Amino acid sequence: MATTRRDPLTLEVVQLIGSVVARYYEEYDQAAAEHSLTGAQARVLGLLSLEPLPMRRIAQKLKCEPSNVTGIIDRLEGRGLVERRPDPDDRRVKVAAVTETGLTTAGLLRDSLDFAREPLADLSEEERRTLRDLLKRMLGDGSGIDGA
Fold it and tell me: Is this prediction's pTM over 0.70?
């Protein structure tokens, strides 16, 4: 029997996902504020701690306009957390790259995000794998969350 989008279980799951996302962003914004960053600045810093990226790719990952990313990078660069570099594959393109100070700050931000760690600690490894696999399946591409 196929479930519809309006059945009570589906509606409850959607509401719970929304609550998890809201709680994540609330805690992320609080952690960012402790480092005098906005949530968006902290998310960009987190992305760049993984690899240098061109502005357009950052915008795609954050699902925002490239002009917004330029302003965020300007502010992070002004604080010495990121720098612009020529792309090694295409010298006409600039990539944003995290500095050592930015890498340290990104690590502190990541370490301060406890909201998911605590509830996940109560789940067995098998339950965490199942949750991961279901979330990947919901995303539709099987590769997991891209970026933040």
Answer: yes
